[in-house]
Specification:
This protein is an alpha+beta fold and 170 residues long. The chain contains six helices and four strands. Helix content is 41%, strand content 15%. Helix 2 crosses helix 5 and helix 3 packs across helix 4. The termini are far apart.
């Protein structure tokens, strides 16, 4: 049995960027968020050919984003159940490419929801207020409890960023 799945995986290697560059791989990662699945299960669930799923799973596995959760003996051989190798993806601090890759994946998922909650608000905050808000958001998302496997899955996107990048000189 593989080790415990790490909580966070930081997107930072060229292999991560290459793996996240294709929209179908985003769909695979989101599908695997529901739990381990075989190539046949993923193909049926995503309406794709098994060969397509196998190819893209290989790319995700080589990038370290997917791993084999367990295997099972079946008539024709061994069936592999694949799982994500992380609970959540995080962008590298100051890494525009990682941020763009993550937001691209999330944008595709959000666009499929007929009634998403999506707000963008710009606030003027002191450094202390920004630090407090960041800690509150991290705690809120980090401590959210999962319901049982029979409940629908929801995505949570949290961002706090300084407009214009750098603080004003002075």
């Amino acid at each position: 049995m593989p080790d415990q799945i790490p909580d966070a995986l930081q997107v930072r290697t060229p292999a991560h960027f290459k793996a996240l560059a294709h929209p179908f791989r985003h769909r695979l990662l989101f599908a695997l968020g529901a739990g381990p699945a075989t190539i046949s299960q993923l193909a049926a669930g995503l309406g794709a050919a098994k060969g397509t799923v196998a190819h893209h799973l290989k790319m995700l596995t080589e990038a370290g984003l997917v791993r084999v959760a367990h295997t099972r003996q079946v008539r024709g051989g061994t069936e592999q159940y694949h799982e994500r190798s992380f609970r959540r993806l995080v962008g590298g601090e100051g890494d525009a490419e990682a941020t763009a890759a993550l937001l691209g994946a999330v944008a595709e998922e959000i666009s499929a929801d007929p009634d998403p909650l999506l707000h963008l608000r710009h606030l003027r905050l002191t450094p202390e207020q920004a630090d407090r808000l960041r800690a509150t958001l991290e705690e809120l998302v980090g401590e959210a409890e999962e319901a049982g496997p029979d409940q629908p899955r929801h995505g949570v996107l949290v961002a706090l960023y300084r407009r214009g990048g750098r603080p004003p000189a002075g």
